[in-house]
Amino acid sequence: MADLQDISNEKIRQEIEEFVENPDEIERNIETFARVRPLMQEIAAALIEGDDGTVDALTKQALEDKIDALEIMDDGLIAAMGVVGIKFRDNYIFVPEVLACARAMKAGMAYIEPILSASGVEPLATVIMGMVKGDLHDIGKNLCIMMLRGSGFNVVDLGVDTSDDEFIDAVEEHSAPILGMSALLTTTMPNMGKTIEAFIDADMRDDVKIMVGGAPVTQEFADDMGADAYGKDALECVAVAKGFLSVQA
């Protein structure tokens, strides 16, 4: 089993030591970063800092060094966003810091996405994502979308204040097997249940797996609303989506 000292990058070691508290997440992050190249650790450290210029330069350098685009995405960008997601969830960083990290992620993915598209890599599945009707708070949703895209999903972002009909039309138009809904207000949470009921009324409920999340949402609430799954953060969002695919396989 890897140890913290097996990670060569001091910044990454400090981030795990200071901000990652869950034992399973500590172990997973140590195992991840201990096995990746030092350059991937540098990319990850820069992304966690929200340094888009350095992420841009290091991603370009990695590609020039003939490092595979998928490796850069998984071992550098996505691994770093995992740490960012934990810090955001546990209130160590807030919206401005996450937005800076998102810009850094975007800087790296600007090089990666065209390569993956040109290589004909098929997305795992299409996921429809949106904030429920009446809710305009989308930072958590956007973090989920970033993680989903980086993990190989095609994501259709419906934005904020999404009506039942908009969710239904998007699922139908894109033949999407997965729908994600988020709410950040207790007053908008019931609209998740209304959307699920709308899918039932449209005779489409069996066609799509529905996952829900957001700060006030709980597993109990998700169960009561008839959702297929609940994810407490962006990391779980990806795990849930992948879990849906393994069930369908």
Commentary on this structure:
This protein has 249 residues and is α/β, with parallel strands linked by helices. The protein folds into two domains: 4-118, Methyltransferase, Methionine Synthase (B12-binding Domains), Chain A, domain 1 (Orthogonal Bundle), CATH 1.10.1240; 126-248, Cobalamin-binding domain (Rossmann fold, 3-Layer(aba) Sandwich). It contains eleven helices and five strands. The chain has helices at residues 10-19, 23-35, 38-49, 52-64, 69-89, 95-118, 139-150, 164-174, 190-201, 219-225, 234-248; strands at residues 126-131, 154-157, 178-182, 209-213, 229-230. A five-stranded parallel beta sheet has the order 2-1-3-4-5, with helices on both faces. Helix 3 crosses helix 6 (95-118). The longest helix has 24 residues, at 95-118. The protein is globular.
Summarize the structure.
The protein is α/β, with parallel strands linked by helices and 249 residues long.
Largest beta-sheet characterization: 5 strands, parallel
User: Runs with pLDDT <50, length 5+?
Assistant: none
CATH superfamily of the largest domain: Cobalamin-binding domain
Helix count equals 11
Mean pLDDT: 94
Q: Reading side by side through the largest sheet, how are the strands ordered? A: 2-1-3-4-5
Query: Can you tell me the number of structural domains?
Result: 2
Indicate the percent of residues in helices: 55-70%
Q: Give the overall silhouette.
A: globular
Q: Helix and strand succession? A: HHHHHHEHEHEHEHEH
CATH topology of the largest domain: Rossmann fold
**Overall strand count:** 5
Tell me the fraction of residues in β-strands, as a range.
5-15%
